[in-house]
Amino acid sequence: MKIFIDTANLDQIHEVSSWGIVDGVTTNPSLMAKEGVFDVVSHIWNISRMINGPISVEVMPLDVKGMVMEGRKFAEIHKNVNIKLPMSTEALKATKILSSEGIKVNVTLIFSVQQALLAAKAGAAFVSLFVGRLDDIGSNGSELIDQTTTVFSNYNFNTEIIAASIRHPGHVLDAALAGCDIATIPYNVLKLMISHPKTDDGINKFIDDYKKLNLL
Ligand code: G3P
What we know:
Elements: E1 2-6, H1 10-17, E2 24-26, H2 29-34, H3 40-50, E3 55-58, H4 64-75, E4 81-86, H5 89-100, E5 105-110, H6 113-122, E6 126-130, H7 131-136, H8 141-154, E7 160-164, H9 169-177, E8 182-185, H10 187-194, H11 197-212
Parallel strand pairs: 1-2, 1-8, 2-3, 3-4, 4-5, 5-6, 6-7, 7-8
Helix pairs in contact: 1-3, 4-5, 8-9
């Protein structure tokens, strides 16, 4: 399973790029706003200097003309830039146009298998399934990943499934068990995935024992 980092924070991207585990980056308007980004183009260019993999950038317009125009503009920033479109009829039309031009599209805000199916049919390279936000309303986000993975595999779709809106390491495990292509993970969850209390205990015990040997 590929791991993307779900952030627009340059320090976090720089840090995880040194871990050797990150295959791409996803951003959205909320993540950009959190970082106070006012120049999206130069911000994305900076990200492209740090990560050699797909970078999802979301367009602002909601009409097909605006989506296509802004999508083309962002795609010119770097060859790794993908255009994120929030699911709608207009997004399906824009996906068809942009993908026919060789621009990869990530259809986002997907909450059902049916939405994912339509996005894939329109030519999306990625679909972003919002696991955490489904759990928030008492639904089952991991089940959506599981079912979509089965459907896409039934028909050999090339569209890659991104498990998004990930809130904790359990979501990552569920995505991996379902055979999901990609999990886009916030920095704090990546940090949680590294640690385990028994690992910390073990390291402290080794340190104590080295001290007994006068090696430290
Ligand atoms: O990639 C989409 C993701 O950023 C949404 O996460 O936590 O806002 O539901 P969240």
